[in-house]
Design brief:
The protein is mainly α and 55 residues long. The chain contains 4 helices and no strands. α1 crosses α2, α1 packs antiparallel against α4 and α2 packs antiparallel against α3. It is found in: Membrane.
Length: 55
């Protein structure tokens, strides 16, 4: 199942978007973008996290 997101990854991304991205990518630029978007608004953080995890 390499390259695909499972249900747990998506669920974590919905509950805590930066955590879901961190678990997938570590502390890279994806994490910081997601953290910033989550601070600016929870919904943009969720959308970006799901996008980043599933791409």
């Amino acid at each position: 199942m390499a390259g695909t997101a499972n249900c747990i990854d998506i669920l974590i991304a919905i509950i805590l978007p930066p955590l879901g991205v961190f678990l997938k990518f570590g502390c890279g630029h994806e994490f910081w973008i997601c953290l910033l978007l989550t601070f600016l608004g929870y919904i943009p953080g969720i959308i970006y996290a799901i996008y980043a995890i599933t791409k």
